[in-house]
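so my prof wants the structure for this chain in the tokens format not the other one, which i didnt know existed until like an hour ago. anyway here's the sequence
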Amino acid sequence: MSGAVCCSNCRDSPCRCETPDRANQDTSTDAREVLESPTGLESGRKYILFDIDGTLCTSRGLGFDWACLSKVTRKDIRLDNTEVSQTADTDLSHVHHILRHHGIPEEDIDNTCRAFFGESQPGAEQWGLTARCPGVMDALDWIRRTADQVGCAVTLGIWTGNSKTNAIVKLEAAGIPLSNFDFRISAFGDECPTKLALFELIQRVIERTYEASGLDMHSILLVGDAPWDIRVASSVGCRSVAVTTGAFGAGELAPLGPDALVSNLTEAFPFFRMFLSGKLEQH
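here's what i got, hopefully its the right format
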């Protein structure tokens, strides 16, 4: 990927945030990314956006291609000689932190990030054992069947701090078919520095492509396992489900006020049904 940084939220050139016909573009670079996506979306559609790590699957390690980082920087960069950020919530912000730690000049960081994400080709073995979180496949199937039952059009997307390459590898390693998700209303951690910026990117795409008359924020449901997932939902005014299949327990997530707090996604079925049927708007 080449070109200057286009805006404060997005690394792409031309700017992914500001390209009106982005959702109609064929952005596939690999056969496994050619996904069936709904068209002609009608008013009243619901959107459910899923985090990956700790929500859809679990895996070991950061998932960075350390060899590629060393190659593009011409430095010896390894996990054991790197200070890892404890606050970064996307791969882009993680890489920024790592590059600063290893003395990459500030003016070179954006181009170095582009080179890294353009060349990085991690394999599933980098995460060791990757497994689906409990109830994930049942939940994905149940959501679609229930949406049909209640007459609701629903689109599922990915909203993750992982780069797109890492996200695909993790989902495939966990046996979660990519066809469950519409990648046009998905955003990945190599595009924006924060999960809030990722959400805003998705929001703009939905508004431009599917909701010309205006987007009701209560038509969006964020599903995640981390405090920052719930904080984003609260800050933008959409619905949220917090699940404790990740690194955080109920004691850490409950005080943040998610709309539902569950130990696995199957426990969220009653809430999903209320969301899809529009009954939450009556409360």
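also thought this was worth mentioning. Residues 1-43 have pLDDT under 50 and may be disordered.
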